[in-house]
Write a structure and sequence with these properties.
Number of strands: 0
Structural class: mainly alpha
Largest sheet: none
Strand content: under 5%
């Protein structure tokens, strides 16, 4: 519920489906989510890439 409130225009069902993988999000939506949780989009992408890098 808190995430839906942070995203303002998104209903709880949007958040739930996104979290469960039932609904994919696009880049614009990812940017909105990052802003809502206080994470820089580029930092998020860098951390994601680093986590997927082969050992």
């Amino acid at each position: 519920m808190e995430m839906a409130a942070r995203l303002r225009s998104r209903p709880q069902s949007y958040v739930s489906k996104s979290e469960s993988g039932e609904r994919k999000i696009d880049l614009v939506e990812l940017e909105e989510i990052c802003e809502a949780i206080g994470v820089d989009l580029l930092d998020f992408v860098r951390r994601y890439q680093a986590s997927r890098a082969p050992d």
